[in-house]
Amino acid sequence: MATILVVGGTGLIGAPVARQLQAAGHAVRVLTRNPEPAQARFGPGFDVRGGDVEDPRALAAALFGCEGVHLSLDGGRDPDLERRGMTAIARAARDLGLSQITYLSGATVDPRHAWYAGTQAKLAAEEALRASGVPFTIFRATFFMESLARYVRDGRASVVGAQPHRWHWVAASDFGRMVARAFETPAAAGQTLTVAGPEALTLREALTRYVALAHPGLAVNTLPLWLAGLFAALSPKGELAARLPFFRYTEQVGESGDPAPANALLGAPRLTLEAWTRQRLAEADA
Ligand SMILES: NC(=O)c1ccc[n+]([C@@H]2O[C@H](COP(=O)([O-])OP(=O)(O)OC[C@H]3O[C@@H](n4cnc5c(N)ncnc54)[C@H](OP(=O)(O)O)[C@@H]3O)[C@@H](O)[C@H]2O)c1
Question: Which pTM does this prediction carry?
Answer without folding.
Answer: 0.97
